Amino acid sequence: MTTLNQFKNFTANLGQTELMPVLFMGHGSPMNGIEINEFSEKWIEIAKNIPIPQAVVVVSAHWFTNGTRITAMDFPPTIHDFGGFPQALFDVQYPAPGNPKLAQETADLVKSTSIILDHDWGLDHGAWTVIKHMYPNANIPVLQLSIDYTKDAKYHYDLAKELSALRKKGVLILGSGNMVHNLRMMSWEMINGGGYDWAIEANEKFKNAILNKNHQPLINYQIMGSEVVLGIPTPEHYLPLMYTLGLQNDNEEAILFNDKAVGGSLTMTSVQIG
To answer: Per the count of CB atoms within 10 A, which of 16, 63, 94, 184 is most buried?
Structure first.
């Protein structure tokens, strides 16, 4: 577990100028948090191949709020926001420190809205199931930024741009959700791999637009076609992608990984920029 002195050292080092990558992770089932599989192995690999961050800011599909909030406590609790899974998953604790100073700096960067410093949330499974594989020693500060459910995709895309200075401070910004996510139509027969035709078609549209840096259709995803409407019945798992794309610079290309459909109606497709 990271000590408070170590946490303060991270805060002191937030002055580097190397531009950190940004990520969108398809997090899928909470069980990925304790399983070593093709998805979690890639998360581990990504962490080994990018610079070690001074801190991580996660935009998780599972913190949907009225207004925008950021965790601002010294040590955010591990939240087990799910049900019906083995006890081993509920037993997981990820004791990464927070960073109140960085929370305030992040809030100060954003001029389009007021960011609320939150002391009640923590790290939900959209955050810790991924990050515990990437940084298993829990020695890097982790903050969560909530998603304002009253706003559209364009708002979140633009808000992300206001966070760009964090990349120069060694902060890894990570969106965590799933591009295609319709649990109501999930097929247990395809849980280990496979997607309905409409899910694959929606995902292909997303991938083509991402690789071509054509963000406008992705922002206006509701008019991309009936298959996209099926793929995004509610926006919370899609909107974290807006934060990743909003932080892309003109000279940066996107790389796709974990590009697989599971359960018929969910895609794990993930994006690295930078």
So the answer is: 63
